[in-house]
Amino acid sequence: MVLSPKQAFEIWQRLQGAEKALVLLVASTGLRVSEALGLTWADIDLEGQLIHIRRSWTGGKIGPPKSHASQASVPCHQLLRAHLELWHKETPYHRPQQWVFPSIRRRGKIPRSASVLVADHLRPAAIAAAILKEGEDCRYGLHTLRHSLATWPCSNGTDPHVVKSLLRHANVSTTLQLYAHAQNADRMTAQGQMLGAFFGNFSEKGDG
Fold this sequence. Notes:
Elements: H1 5-12, H2 17-29, H3 33-37, E1 44-45, E2 50-51, E3 56-58, E4 61-63, E5 74-75, H4 78-90, H5 114-128, H6 142-149, H7 152-155, H8 160-167, H9 172-207
Antiparallel strand pairs: 1-2, 2-5, 3-4
Helix pairs in contact: 1-5, 2-4, 2-6, 8-9
């Protein structure tokens, strides 16, 4: 599933606090959810406009980033910076070594749970925005925002190598595969619409 920027915005504006900051972070940087949840405030250099990827949070454990390429820092645009600063003022866990997205239930000792974030916040927001249907079975989560970032810039003519650098793919072919997959899904949708109209018109003529 690939979201358009408008769809991502519709989801984002229905969120609050940590969830709102997290969705904007992942949508604009392409961080893996494990990398985003593994961030501490010390990893975010607001003045230097960089976010340093130093660890991941997966399966309830701290680990290294996925690969050597994943350890590259990502840019922090001034618009993203402004929203992170708002969350920094709001969260009770704002010291340098504390988690950016802490578990409130565990009193900030560990990061949030990705599965709970999706089930309790991200999916309901998508349903409220009419992007998903209640009970719809599809692969949707924070990873959707990362995959979407692989398609938006490429669709607008951005050099795939620039997108590769932003997503920290080891090889540009990975970026292009995601883009091609999204293009194929769009083509399939367009084809389905045409066939629906075709058979609809055929049925109307047949009824006449």
